[in-house]
From TrEMBL:
Protein name in the entry: Sugar transferase
Source organism, top-level taxon: Bacteria
Single GO molecular function: transferase activity
Species name: Parasediminibacterium paludis
Pfam families, alphabetized: Bac_transf
Length: 401
């Protein structure tokens, strides 16, 4: 049968395993034909080439995976998504936070395994038949990063504004102390990655010597999080600022998960091909860091160096409580399904891992990331207040960073 010359209605399945395929072959789906594709690129190429009459898309993928809401958003941008988009995933993986993200992003239905024939037949047939009416009413929004709720934002402004006024004498003392001990500005900013991978200027009191960044390469062997003690060569910088992998170029699409360092952009797949993923840890942290000044050690152990971030809260880059925004070289490595969830929570001055782990010894990279994900899935205004109350005693626990 030449699908390009027929009006056969097709349900497109993405990334489905053999068990799911066998089950759907037994379901009553009003005589519609089922077609299976490995990924979104294969779907798009066949859709255009054969002018398929696709009436629904069902992807067996996690909400945050490349074939989840990322694929949905890509289809919307290409103006191809005029049909219901559904996901199949294990019940234990579907948290309330992921459910909310999926529905807000425009996912029509979330089916959980083990699949129910009655549920699939009833719901999928209904969605296909009534999708034009349903989609007009719902006005689905494209997936967007976390947006601060009014109550949380009001609290942030009140807390940060009051703190800046009350702490202004301390700001002056620390400013003079830093200037007297070493040359360079008392304040500095660095680019950080926060909610939704948004990059912003992150303000702190300077706690290191002015040439600390230049000395970083010579100290890689001291990395607390390194998988091994070998010094790893830097990835070569490409002249082309938009380096895409062969897959993305063949499909003529923008990189679905780009990674950044300074003003350079790579496709994640190209990045992985050029640098072994096990060679570098995502985090870089030195124990007894020789780049830190005497005043720097004090303001770090008491978290005074973080106080200028109150200004980041005032201008809306951060919240009082949230996941710590990351340097570019750390965030560029956290685009996998396992860790991307942390970027769907507010960026904050203090958070879950700071309170639970501060002063309790070294913390592994996995521990830190899992705590970030835990906060992203369970954050609320009430929980934020609890973390703030726990932060106060934590500030006075010494931590050798």
């Amino acid at each position: 049968m030449n699908l390009a010359e027929t009006s056969t209605e097709i349900i497109a399945f993405i990334n489905c395993d053999s068990t799911t395929k066998a089950l759907f072959e037994t379901y009553q789906l009003s005589g519609r034909k089922m077609m299976y594709f490995e990924n979104g690129i294969e779907l798009v190429n066949n859709w255009k080439k054969n002018k398929l009459q696709i009436v629904a898309i069902v992807s067996q993928s996690d909400v945050l995976s490349v074939n989840g809401i990322s694929l949905l958003e890509n289809l919307e941008k290409r103006q191809l998504l005029t049909t219901p988009f559904c996901l199949i995933l294990p019940k234990e993986q579907l948290t309330e936070h992921k459910r909310k993200l999926a529905l807000e992003s425009g996912v029509a239905e979330l089916f959980t395994t083990p699949l129910s024939a009655e549920s699939i037949e009833t719901r999928l047939n209904f969605l296909i038949t009534n999708w034009s009416k349903i989609s007009n009413k719902q006005q689905h929004k494209a997936f967007a990063p976390y947006k601060t709720e009014f109550l949380k934002r009001a609290f942030d402004l009140l807390f940060a504004g009051t703190a800046l006024i009350c702490l202004s004498p301390l700001f002056l003392i620390i400013y003079l102390w830093i200037k007297l001990e070493s040359k360079g500005p008392a304040f500095y900013y660095a680019l950080r990655v926060g909610t939704g991978y948004r990059v912003f200027k992150f303000y702190k009191f300077r706690s290191m010597y002015a040439d600390a960044d230049k000395r970083l390469k010579d100290l890689k062997h001291l990395n607390q999080y390194a998988a091994n003690k070998e010094v790893v060569e830097d990835i070569p910088i490409a002249d082309d600022l938009d380096v895409r992998c062969a897959e993305c170029k063949a499909a003529d699409i923008a990189c679905r998960f780009p990674i950044y360092a300074d003003n350079i952009q790579w496709c994640e797949q190209s990045y992985i091909e050029n640098k072994s993923s096990k060679a570098n840890s995502a985090f870089f942290k030195l124990k007894n860091d020789p780049r830190i000044t005497k005043v720097g050690k004090f303001i770090r152990n008491t978290s005074i160096d973080e106080l200028p971030q109150l200004w980041n809260v005032i201008i809306g880059d951060m919240s009082i409580v949230g996941n710590r925004p990351l340097p570019l070289y750390e965030a560029e490595k956290l685009t996998s399904d396992r860790y991307a969830l942390r970027f769907l929570a507010p960026a904050g001055i203090t958070g879950l891992w700071q309170v639970e782990k501060r002063g309790k010894g070294e913390m592994s990279e996995d521990e830190r990331l899992m705590l970030d994900n835990k906060y992203a899935e369970n954050h609320s205004f009430v929980n934020d207040i609890r973390l703030i109350l726990k932060t106060i005693p934590a500030l006075f626990q010494s931590e050798n960073v």
